[in-house]
Amino acid sequence: MKLSNENQPLGDYILTHLIAKNSLSNTWLAEQTSVTRRVLVDELRPECFDKRENFLAEVRTKAAVDHPSVASVYEASLETERCYFAYEFLPGTDLETCEKNRRYFQPAQLNLILRKISEAEIYHESSGHATSPLELNAVFVDTQAVVRLKNLTTYGDRRDDESARDILFLGASLVPLVAINQPGSTRLLTLLSWMRGEGLDAPIRWDQVRDYCGEIDHQLAELGSSLSPTKRGKRAVRNHSGLKIALAAGVVIFGIVGIAYRLHPPAPPRPSRTPLPDAVAVVAGKHPSLTGVDKSLPAFRISANEITISQYAEFLETLGILSKEKREHSFDSEDQPAEKTSHVPTDWSDLLAAAQVNGIWQNQSVTLDSPVVGVDWWDASAYAEWKKARLPTQEQWMAALISGLREPEMLPKGPWISVTSHVEDRTPTGILGMAGSVSEWTSRRGTNPANPLGEPLWVIVGGSYLKQGSNALTCEWTQDRSLRRSDLGFRIVFDGE
User: Is the entire prediction scored with pTM above 0.85?
Assistant: First the structure.
């Protein structure tokens, strides 16, 4: 029997199907008429209208979430007799349905899913968000292998056991989804066993899960593993002793896999590339600054381009080699947090895979010569140390920008594209991407001129392709050197010759 509200308008929405209900609200599949898109609408049940403040408190908590992998809240409305909010309808198939249909994932894809979950959970953890228990039906994967999560935040304080609860759950629940006897399956199963606490003296944390996933990504990046679900292979068995054997045999198996892949025919040639521009010299002397006071600087050279994906990949390869000698932290800053164990950027495997074929990443064209993004200050600093260079100070960056440029705010803003492409975002001395492309880390803290009495914060400079109002004179200040964004990279400076 059709409910009275079906196919009826509710603000900007047409309610089409009731898909769930609880003691407080009904969840509708709806159509947002103004933009013609499917959404979900949670409507407070009429008999619960006196509980609208609790309902709206939950809505405000969910609306405050700002993470690319977590479903967004679009709108909330409190009318005379109706209270509701609309939120994102996630495309694709949830993992619970995949398990019921016995659909298995290649290790590279399931590792990506786990990494995306861990990044979202780290965000909730660091923000102090309380969340409902994670379930497989909260994780969606679409046909383009994009991973999204339901918004599970709830009103109230986060409990200490929430992270451990969800890590333990995934450590057990993802095992049946692994396509076994595939490249990476042994290491992924080992990671899942660690998430269940097997063979560890202390529980594993979300940041460790993310970093281990990054290591697996990096090891599999060149293997060309499929990123789509498969029905091949046998169901992985939850056998703890078997996993312990797998842990002991992991290195041997990966060595065999490496030999097998070397015997495969070579991959198709990658797209041709042109050399990157040389570093640009800035002479010693007094240079203008944003504060209006000239700064005396020694001569230096600054990279003409923001560090590229290809350049950063070489750095990670070096760390991989050094890790065999336990020297992978040779370039870390002395004050790098102990919990930061990896310099693998956010979404690195997908970004690198797309760049290698001049493909698409997050709806953007990308090549190996596109600026690297998803790196924090620690990553940028370690790369600079590896190159026997350093991150530029804010004053050095501004001096390089203004050299030969009368009106730096008028420098044409460029998109995030290959630094070897023809772009107008170029200073007279040949420095690229300062007005647009990606924003950039600098080496040290500075005072925000708008708050001269405030504490010095870490400075991010330059325009961003994601921020329409930004330009070459844009600066940001942040307390968080662990900040990572899809529009944040860096360039480096060397001593003058």
Answer: no
